[in-house]
Amino acid sequence: xxxxxxxxxxxxxxxxxxxxxxxxxxxxxxxxxxxxxxxxxxxxxxxxxxxxxxxxxxxxxxxxxxxxxxxxxxxxxxxxxxxxxxxxxxxxxxxxxxxxxxxxxxxxxxxxxxxxxxxxxxxxxxxxxxxxxxxxxxxxxxxxxxxxxxxxxxxxxxxxxxxxxxxxxxxxxxxxxxxxxxxxxxxxxxxxxxxxxxxxxxxxxxxxxxxxxxxxxxxxxxxxxxxxxxxxxxxxxxxxxxxxxxxxxxxxxxxxxxxxxxxxxxxxxxxxxxxxxx
Length: 278
Fold this sequence. Notes:
Layout: H1 2-7, H2 10-44, E1 46-50, E2 59-60, E3 66-69, E4 78-86, E5 89-98, E6 103-110, E7 116-120, E8 123-126, E9 133-137, H3 148-159, E10 162-168, E11 170-173, E12 175-176, E13 182-184, E14 191-201, E15 204-215, E16 222-230, E17 236-240, E18 243-247, E19 263-270, H4 273-276
Antiparallel strand pairs: 1-7, 2-4, 3-4, 4-5, 5-6, 6-19, 7-8, 9-16, 10-11, 10-17, 12-14, 13-14, 14-15, 15-16, 17-18
């Protein structure tokens, strides 16, 4: 065998072994794209609108703001997170994933105190009445900079003041992704700048943190506000400056649930590769 290898031209060896290494990667990528298309198809049937005097249909972003896996929970799990916007500002986040045994699950969480109505194929399935935690002034924060690049640095620094943990047998600290999932804002408007940050287990979203510079209509000055939203069914807690700030309470499946809750999770079907690709 060694003589055969030594007599084989180098370029042929590289070609032989290179093709073997690349083929699984191409197959994995193809499978991921097929799964993503299937998940997007499920979300295409969802319509979310505000329920104020003049209802407004929220627009879902075309592409996910996060693609994730979670080998800690399951080597087979993978999902994507999408946002529904009121113009630029996110009011709803949803993660959809294909889990063990090809079960398809989705999670919806509200980032607003506005009442919302979510329907799937014209049937209401989620009607949240408030955010997980209403927006609150972030104290001891610097005045928002006039320069967008400096405000991004401020946003990141403010996000690092928060810590998050989720209880899965024991409390486990989550990781803050350094880049925001989404950023919005406009000069001389009600919201100068805003960013949506994410605490994760591996890359799987557990808690969302929204920070934005809002204008005080009486002083016309901008101040930083924050909102917290859970993106997981186990109990979660958040600290600000190492002090307890928010606790989601018991686990989602261990407590009474209502379509009016700010967070919803459900198994919506089973992924069948052959049927999905027809």
